[in-house]
Amino acid sequence: MELEQDDDPLAAMQAELSRLRQEHRDLDSAIEALENMNGGDQLQVQRLKKRKLILKDRMSFLEDQVTPDIIA
Fold first, then answer.
1. Cα 22 to the chain's mean position, in Å?
2. Sorting pLDDT into bands at 50, 70 and 90, what band is 4?
3. Cα 12 to the chain's mean position, in Å?
């Protein structure tokens, strides 16, 4: 029997982390495209950069949850 992501919290976190990483890369592309446009919308660039920071914080949190602490 195959486990669903709801049954495996680790798998759910890894799936969310993967989705967030993809969205982060997509935002990089969108920001670069806007910045390269003549008269690009700076307000939109700022919003996208803020979204990227939020994603980065969430990714860091999930990475900490997925990666076990190593006690030396």
1. 7
2. low
3. 14
